[in-house]
Each structure stands twice: as C-alpha cells, then as structure tokens.
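<amino_acid_chain>
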Amino acid sequence: MSFMAPGQVVWFEIGTREASTAEKFYGELLGWNFEVDPDSSVDGRRYIRIMAPEAPWPMGAISESGSGGEQINVSVFSEDVSADVDRLCEAGATVLVPATQVADVTWFAVLADPQGNPFSLFSRTSNEDLKDRAKATEEHFEQSSYAPSQGSFAWFEIGTTDADATRAFYSQAFGWRFERDETAGGKPYYNVFTGNQWPSGGMYDHGAQGTDYVMPSFLSGDVAAQSKSAENLGAVIEFGPDSNPDGLVYSRIVDPNGNRFGLFSMPTQS
C-alpha cells in the first residue's frame, strides 16, 4: 500500500498564536528548518513548513493565527475530506474546523476523537504541478519510514484512558489494526498498523486514571540528553526517559506552549 493511501498518517501540525516561540524551541532542540508558505500570509495567519535537518521536503507545519489556541495534531490522508468529516462524526468525532479549502493547494479539516484528542484530515491538491511535488514528498516519506533521519517525524502515539473505545473508533474510522507489542516489557502498549506491513504508530493504555492524547514522536540520537535539553529550553518531561527490553528509549514531553510530543531512539542493532 502507498504511504499516501487513505488512512495513513502523513503530516503533523503545531497550532500557535506565536510561531517564533515554537521555531526557537524546536529549532534549537531538533535542528528543524522552517519556510513560510507564501500563499498563506492572509488574514493574519501564516503557515510555516517544517523540515528535519538535511531533509529535502517538509514533514509538518506550524499554523500561526492570532485568534487560535495552542494545539498539536497529526494529519491523516483522505481522498474526500468533506465526506470523511460526515462519516467520522457518525462514528463519534466532533468537528473543530470544518472541511476547508486553502487556495488551490489542499482541503483539510480538524476533528476531535471521542476522547477529545484533535487530529486533522488532509487531501492533496488537484493541481498537476503540486501533484508532482506531492509525489516526490510521498517518495521521501516512504524512504524516511525505512531509515528516518534525526529530528524527523517517524512515529505517532495515542495515549488513552479507554483502550476499547479508542481502538473501536480508529478501527472504524481508518481501518487501523492494533496488536500488543510483545517487546515493550509488559507495558500495555499496542502497535498501530495503518495499512502497511509495519506499524507506524502506537497506543499506550494508561487506564482510567491516565492521560488522553494523540501526539507526534521524533527520532532522537540521544533521548536522555535531548530530554534534558528540552527541559532547559522550558519544556516539562511528562514521562521518561524510559526504555524497553529491546533497547528502544523514549520520553514524553510537553513543550513551552503546552503541546505534547515524544522523543525516541531505535534499539541498538547487535
């Protein structure tokens, strides 16, 4: 299955009133580069593409609006955003931003799952020139999924206080499959398969007294050191660094604007 097939997580967005704070934090922490979308600077809003170090294509964006709040979400590819909004509302989602066309570039919508976690729907443009760019971006994402670079968006995680309800919603919404991760050392962690043969995300069952979220996770060369750096830059370490028996190391962090994200490093190959 193509990485850009419906139901795939293909993007992330940081919504903020002041982009410079996010740019400074993530630029210093993960070495991200930023470029403003020239078509977006209207009505006091800016859309700023995010690129991992040395990456040729963006992996996400900062959406700056003086009237908006702080929010981070992952984006799921859709063939028909309007139809999917209607379908997902019937499955229990609520609409935060209705299906909206941005110039001739794309359609998007922002919804919340039944646990209140925001996520967005995204469709690529019909413009032929931009289709070529989308195809090149898809190829980059597919390569990154095999060998992601440091600082790149390489995983997403759902934290839930109701694992059965979360599993039921995302299975119905996008056909996602959940399998218990036997390498997690007994933690109630599930790999999420979004259509490909390898997982692209995970679900952590925190139990009724835990935390609900959907967050992007970024590849780190040294989770402990970068977690400490994040703390020095004004973030809060919510969990970790912790490790699995197979050597995977991860942290869950809340940035200075209150947005949650993860850092992880892959197990060491023996």
Summary: The domain at 9-146 is CATH 3.10.180.10 (2,3-Dihydroxybiphenyl 1,2-Dioxygenase; domain 1). The chain has five helices and 16 strands. The first helix runs from residue 19 to 30.
